[in-house]
Amino acid sequence: DKNYKKLQDKYEFLGNVRGKGLMIGFEMSEDRTSKKPLRPELVSQIWEGMRENGVLLGRGGLWGQTFRVKPPMCVTREDIDHCVSAFDHECSKIQQ
Questions:
Q1: Cys staple from 67: which of 15, 20, 54, 57, with CB 3.0 to 4.6 Å?
Q2: DSSP assignment letter at 55
Q3: pLDDT category, 37, cuts 50, 70, 90?
């Protein structure tokens, strides 16, 4: 979704957004130049905040720094908007 790309512009620690269709991955990094993984406690803070907002994300990457979004086929536009809004809110809490 293009809204996730907008978040990448907003947060420097959102290093890479990739995927196709409904399957999207967010790689969290200290900065886009070094691509050093974001500190685990900050990644966990975002993950827990999303869970508290009713959004379950998978985690991957060598250091667990990549969020995986794999919604069900019955996902609605409202669901997607809620996920984007919750992700934006949680990222804003750790803005560096």
A1: 57
A2: -
A3: very high
Average pLDDT over residues 18-29: 89
3-state class of 28 per DSSP? strand
Model confidence, pTM = 0.88
Residue 57, phi then psi, degrees to nearest 5: -115, 145
Instruction: Decide if 36 contacts 65 (C-beta within 8 A).
Output: no
Closest of 69, 63, 56 to residue 26, by C-alpha: 69
- What does DSSP assign to residue 37? B
Q: What is the pLDDT of residue 43?
A: 96
Tell me how far CA of residue 35 lies from CA of 29, 38, 86, in angstroms.
5, 9, 24
